[in-house]
């Protein structure tokens, strides 16, 4: 009897974890998986090439990018290839999530290089974070059509 009583408790914990994952946390995890699987392009040149070849699946653009022409180019290439764009608050955060950062002994970011654009060409493996992110993008697309 004690085995059956423990199982519902484990199910409840898993459900709570799914609710807790925010879109930004999911984006961080998806970017790291893409980096591991060599499916991440960083910077204007690499991103523009991936978007032009239509190999891009998702684009992240920093809101604090000062060059309007840069943002206009990336948005136009994304619109042409029907690629979803996620706006990130800071280029430093985006750079750290893409692996462009030095870490200290505890694993905290010591120095991050800023990047204004990152493109995912290969998500890598199916994860819960990817599902959360794709659901969010689908809701955004549905809201945009209405």
Mean pLDDT: 82
Q: How does the helix and strand content classify structurally?
A: alpha+beta
SSE string, helices as H and strands as E: HHEHEHEHEEEH
Radius of gyration: 18 Å
Q: Into which percent range does the helicity of residues fall?
A: 55-70%
Distance between the termini: 52 Å
C-alpha geometry? globular
Describe the largest sheet.
Answer: 4 strands, mixed
Strand order within the widest beta sheet? 1-6-2-3
Structure characterization notes:
The protein is an alpha+beta fold and 146 residues long. The protein has 6 helices and 6 strands. Helix 2 packs across helix 6 and helix 3 runs parallel beside helix 4. The N and C termini lie far apart (52 Å). The relative contact order is 0.21. About 9% of the residues have low confidence.
């Amino acid at each position: 009897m004690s085995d059956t009583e423990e199982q519902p408790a484990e199910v409840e914990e898993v459900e709570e974890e799914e609710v807790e994952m925010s879109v930004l946390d999911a984006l961080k995890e998806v970017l790291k998986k893409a980096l591991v699987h060599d499916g991440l392009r960083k910077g204007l040149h690499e991103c523009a090439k991936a978007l032009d070849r239509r190999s891009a699946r998702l684009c992240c653009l920093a809101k604090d990018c000062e060059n309007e022409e840069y943002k206009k180019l990336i948005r136009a290439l994304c619109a042409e290839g029907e690629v979803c764009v996620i706006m990130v608050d800071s280029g430093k955060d985006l750079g750290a999530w893409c692996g462009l950062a030095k870490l200290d002994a505890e694993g905290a970011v010591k120095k991050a290089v800023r990047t204004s654009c990152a493109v995912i060409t290969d998500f890598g493996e199916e994860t819960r974070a990817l599902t959360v992110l794709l659901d969010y993008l689908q809701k955004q697309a549905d809201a945009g059509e209405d």
